[in-house]
Design brief:
single chain; three-stranded antiparallel beta sheet; 14% strand; globular; binds calcium ion
Length: 403
């Protein structure tokens, strides 16, 4: 056997163990890489495996799941912002109204305040203007249910119109005729075609408007009888299910398709005493059906420390817990859920009012303590007030609360 014919082994080529290890590793490494390349080529031919497809589907599912709430939240933000923008524009219009007529508009909850205001704004107006107005705003004709403010009982203290109607009535514009601001050309009330009773209709082309109410957001309909057409309002029928109570005074909703209208409260009548029994206090409210809730002026966390609360003295305690915007006005929208929240007032008890921005409830019989917070009305159920929009908050009420 010749030594030259012997095939050299790997071990014989290496002089040390470490060289042998390096050579072995290199060869095995090349083999692994080749195998991987082969496998990859094979995979490319076969397309994606089932596991890969399922993984991709799962990832897409997770991304879509993350995206849908984000889109919903973005939509809600845009819709809330639109309501807020309109509320603030209306609030600016109320300020312009004050500049023009010398005072904030009345909210219709008290006849004496209402008449005093318009006599001052239009000193030459004919007395018949009120007579005609009261024919077309039916609260004075004995309305005891449905949309109304809680007016004082007793002559002269009645509710003239509700707090949503008053907003449209006051800001929609009056006639330039100084003796007939309501019924003159361009005023809110105009003659109806012959055969209608009362012989009037709402005028959709009013002059001197402080705010241009979009007609499609007003609760107006055309009423047709054998004798012709006239424009009436249908808010009582839609919101309180009492079409027989429909009057000519429309309300204004934030956006088309939304039912609960903007409500306006004048600080003079957030609460008021009945002239015949001053100890009795009334709290202004706007409500439709129970489904829409109760809009009441909001209180403030800013207490009036000049007043000492007094057990069961409603009037003193009402003054102790200030109202938000206590010298001007409040505009309230029910928000996207079309529900103002709030609960009915029990007989002979004050309603629960809520403080802004904390959302703590106030029972003015014991104004320093309440078990309800975060606008809650029923324990454990999120409040319909949380998405309400007002002219004194920069966003929905929930956003203003400290968490
Ligand atoms: Ca009414
Ligand atoms: Ca009405
Ligand atoms: Ca709401």
């Amino acid at each position: 056997m010749q030594a030259g014919n012997t095939k050299p082994t790997l071990a014989s080529q290496c002089h040390t163990n470490s060289e042998l290890y390096n050579q072995l590793f290199k060869h095995r490494g090349l083999g692994v890489m080749r195998a991987a390349r082969t496998r990859r080529r094979t995979n490319r031919r076969q397309g994606f495996t089932l596991i890969e497809i399922l993984t991709v589907i799962a990832i897409i599912g997770i991304l879509v799941g993350l995206l849908i709430p984000a889109i919903g939240a973005a939509r809600r933000y845009v819709a809330n912002s639109a309501i807020l923008f309109e509320a603030q524009t209306i609030a600016n219009a109320v300020e312009q109204y004050k500049n023009k007529y010398g005072d904030y508009p009345p909210d219709g909850s008290n006849r004496a305040v209402f008449e005093r205001h318009f006599r001052k704004a239009f000193p030459n107006m004919a007395a018949t203007e009120f007579t005609i107005l009261y024919q077309v705003a039916n609260n004075l004709s004995g309305e005891s249910s449905g949309l109304r403010a809680v007016g004082g009982s007793g002559s002269g203290q009645e509710t003239v119109m509700d707090a949503a109607e008053a907003l449209v009535f006051c800001l929609g514009g009056f006639s330039s005729d100084p003796t007939h601001p309501f019924t003159g050309p361009g005023g809110p009330i105009t003659a109806a075609p012959a055969g209608f009773s009362p012989p009037f209709q709402y005028n959709v082309t009013r002059d001197n408007a402080m705010f241009e109410f979009k007609q499609e957001q007003l609760s107006l309909e055309v009423e047709e009888t054998g004798s012709g057409f006239r424009t009436i309002s249908v808010d009582e029928g839609i919101l309180a299910d009492t079409p027989s109570r429909n009057d000519l005074m429309p309300v204004y909703s934030p956006g088309t398709g939304r039912l609960a209208p903007f409500v306006y409260f004048d600080s003079r009548t957030y609460s008021f005493s009945n002239a015949s029994s001053p100890g009795q206090l009334f709290f202004n409210v706007y409500y439709g059906t129970l489904l829409r809730g109760f809009a009441r002026p909001y209180k403030s966390d800013n207490l009036n420390t000049n007043v000492i609360p007094n057990q069961n003295d409603w009037k003193t305690n009402d003054a102790f817990v200030r109202y938000a915007n206590d010298n001007s006005f409040q505009i309230i929208s029910a928000g996207l859920d079309d529900d103002y929240g709030g609960v009915a007032q029990a007989a002979n008890e004050p309603p629960l009012l809520y403080k802004f921005p904390s959302g703590d409830a106030v029972d003015i019989r014991s104004p320093n303590g309440s078990s309800f917070s975060r606008y809650t009305e029923v324990p454990g159920i999120p409040s319909a007030q949380l998405d309400n929009v007002t002219n004194f908050a920069d966003g929905i009420l929930e956003d203003a609360m400290e968490n």
